Amino acid sequence: QRCPRHARRVSPTTDMSGALSKISKKYNKKEIFALKAVFDEADADGSGEIDSSELRRALSKSSLSAAAVDMFKALDKDGSKRIGFDEYLKAYYKFASPAEIKELMLWVYPPKEEEVVEQRKLSDAQKAEIKSIFVLYDANNNGLLEKKELFEALTASGYDDDEIEEMFEEYDQDGSHAIDFDEFCAMLESSYLDS
User: Fold this and answer.
1) The Cα angle at residue 24 between residues 171 and 162, in degrees rounded to 5
2) Which of 50, 63, 180, 191 could bridge across to 83 with cysteines, CB 3.0–4.6 Å?
3) pLDDT of 134-147, one tens digit each?
4) Rounded to 5 degrees, what are φ and ψ at 82?
């Protein structure tokens, strides 16, 4: 797994540093997992959804039991007669955007490893952009970025010397003391796929 500081997007014209998600600053992971625990407790049949009888049962010991039907209708935004955890989150975080809800759902339901591998591929356009960056900084046109060339490319994008050194060591897979195009693609892949 790559260090989050490697998730900056390098561009020949723009410094794209700071591509880290702001969602973890806005929402509390412990709170999300606590909400999930409450949701799971109400989900008596373990289906991953709450139906109206499960909600009534969950609220039976509280002063809200009389309002269970109205609450259920308010929570069941898609009219499926079942409340998914996403609808539960939407009700709790009324001002959360759909993208934020989706990311919060990923905290609780992370994709399986094979799904991540399949989803995380660079498009042809992204590869072409990375190639143009690579060619731009390959000053001696030998098809490799030597350490000096890589330092020039990444310093311009806001990386410090220690970060660049660490990245160089991590991505120089063949030990050639230079980064070839495939290694450069691997280096930038997470910043392209996470942006």
Assistant:
1) 30
2) 50
3) 899 899 999 999 98
4) -145, 145
Domain regions of the chain by residue span: 24-110, 118-193
Average pLDDT over residues 104-123: 71
96 to 91, 104, 155, 160, 194: CA distances (angstroms) = 9, 10, 36, 35, 20
According to CATH, the superfamily of the domain at 118-193 is EF-hand (1.10.238.10)
* CATH superfamily assigned to domain 24-110: EF-hand (1.10.238.10)
Find residue 179's DSSP bridge partners: 145
Dihedral, CA atoms, 187, 188, 191, 195, nearest 10 degrees? Answer: -160
The Cβ of residue 118 has, within 10 Å, a number of other Cβ atoms equal to 10
CB atoms within 10 A of CB 16: 15
Q: What share of the chain is helix, strand, coil (3-state, %, to 5)?
A: 60, 10, 35
Query: Is 24-110's fold the same as 118-193's?
Result: yes
Query: Given this model, what pLDDT does residue 188 score?
Result: 80
pLDDT the model gives residue 133: 87
Average pLDDT over residues 152-177: 84
Q: Over pLDDT 70: what percentage of the chain?
A: 78
155 pLDDT more than 70? yes
State the average pLDDT over residues 162-185.
Answer: 86
Question: Are the C-beta atoms of residues 186 and 8 closer than 8 Å to each other?
Answer: no
